[in-house]
Amino acid sequence: MPKRYSPEIRRTALEFVNQGQTQIEVAQALGVNPKTLSHWVTTAQARMPEQQRNELEKLKRLRLQVRQQQAEIDFLKKAAAYFAKLPM
Questions:
Q1: Quick check: 16 and 41 in contact, CB under 8 A?
Q2: What is the 8-class DSSP label of residue 19?
Q3: Helices 23-30, 34-47: crossing angle, 10 deg rounding
Q4: Low-confidence residues of the chain, pLDDT below 50?
Q5: pTM over 0.70
Q6: What DSSP character marks residue 86?
């Protein structure tokens, strides 16, 4: 028998996903099956106006770009610290 989740759990999960957390992270944090969460997200996005969907996709791309750039910055900081320790 399928497990039922309250509308509050669904809203909370969708908010976390829309804020940039991965569906896997949200599903694990809330104890929801990842496939169930994926279904909720797909259904919610289908109900959104097209402009809002486009803005949400753009926001997701920008957040991904920020994470990638932050990883590059962290790597460069470590590399700079390493090379600063080398004798000349």
A1: no
A2: T
A3: 120
A4: none
A5: no
A6: S
